[in-house]
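Worked example (supplementary).
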Amino acid sequence: MELPSKILENAIDALGTLPGVGKRSAMRFALHLLQASDAEVADFVSAIQRLKSDIHFCSRCHCISDTPVCSICSNPKRNEKIICVVENIQEVMAIENTQQYQGLYHVLGGVISPIDGVGINDLNIASLIQRVETEGVEEVILALPTTMEGDTTNFYLNKQLQRFPNLLISTIARGIAVGDNLEYADEVTLGRSIAHRIPFNSLNS
Amino acid sequence: MELPSKILENAIDALGTLPGVGKRSAMRFALHLLQASDAEVADFVSAIQRLKSDIHFCSRCHCISDTPVCSICSNPKRNEKIICVVENIQEVMAIENTQQYQGLYHVLGGVISPIDGVGINDLNIASLIQRVETEGVEEVILALPTTMEGDTTNFYLNKQLQRFPNLLISTIARGIAVGDNLEYADEVTLGRSIAHRIPFNSLNS
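After joint prediction of all chains, the assembly is encoded as:
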């Protein structure tokens, strides 16, 4: 499609870089912004600019934050003795969304993946060890993705954390998702969910 | 979901104002921008800002343009004797995309809609009449949406254009869409497509 304006074309290309946005959606977005008021577009742009200019990463857990230490780490109601290790900020938000977790987090910033050139030193692992050493941590929950890379990272972290004999190292439960049909579950998941079966009464706790 | 950063929350809200973007997509967009490089975000933002600051509307057809007169109106290969009247810029691009039309356009900027407070004076109707008067136009194609408001506007324009006795006033063909099943077509469309049937041989012209 030949567009009557190069400026519009550039805006469509820019909006098309957003994840999952195709040419057609990008054009809808661009035409929407074109027809929005000056103030609306200024607000839109400044909200995005501030993402880059004003956002911090928490010095303790590496989650994003508006302040040097994030609102989770500085909340006195959270249980400082438990650290949940996650890959990215997205997972912090997903877990927060469940309202089932009251401990702190540690954002690794990725998982070990030689194919993508991500090694041990690219991740926030040293600071995790340091936190366990100095913050009186009693439990580390490994909540990395259940992929090959996630498992490799879990394995490495588990090994590194063995030096703390009193530390409990746990991982998130794996099994059949709530609402899923057994017949469509993959064999590994189904196999694990039988091997790691739990007392029926614990489901309601 | 409680977010650890107000800045991120603002960016998500801003991205959520784009048409068809929900909270989840807006969050994906925001996290994508957060993880993009400074240069990428600067490009993204400037492409959107230029939409507001640098874009013109063609003084002749009211389509968007990078110059005072748009690339379609100033293209000497286009047939200046035909004007296709459309509601918005989107329709110009959709028709251009078909590569079936070589005339010029006239963007009304909406259709008559008393319920939305859009009256005759809010649309680029006077400039259309003036163009027909002064530009030696031989045909006006009414390509407005096939809605009640579109039909009302068509009717009004048709009446206004009666003052030019030699002007051909046409409208886009309505009927069964290519690839559609007759059984699922609505009655009005099917009825019209039979009443306005065309010679079979003209299909291939």
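Two points are worth noting when inspecting this output. Chain A touches chain B through 56 residues (CB under 8 Å). The radius of gyration of chain A is 22 Å.
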